[in-house]
Amino acid sequence: MNANDITGLAKATLDGSMPFPEIVGKLIANGVEYYHVDYATSSFTFYSPSGAAVIAPIEFEALPSIAEDFDVAALKAAILDSQQHGQTFRAFCERAMQAGVQGYIAYLRGQRVTYFGRQGDQHTEWFPGAKPSDT
After folding, report:
1. Are 93 and 62 in contact (CB under 8 A)?
2. Fewer CB atoms inside 10 Å of the end CB: C or N, the chain?
């Protein structure tokens, strides 16, 4: 993993200067297997299969407090807005935090994201088109 490339992609996520699917493709090309967004510490941590990690700040001012209760319906609405309407990452962060999301792990190879609440609640969302059929 190239730390400069990874932090540049984190910055592009924050400022919206690159489409998110392109960012994901570049993260994978840079050897990122999964990443953790931690709203409590306002940071991203990107991980390689070998365990190397790159940490980058989430530099948004005046984000809301993380709600105490986990609201899956509100989270799903925020996810859908991002997928279908190109909601900004900042708007997604605000809505996720208001829905009680403390953080999440995006498993790029596994094509899913698991969101965590402050009380241990969690919700897994598959990448569009990635959910396996129930057989």
Report:
1. no
2. C
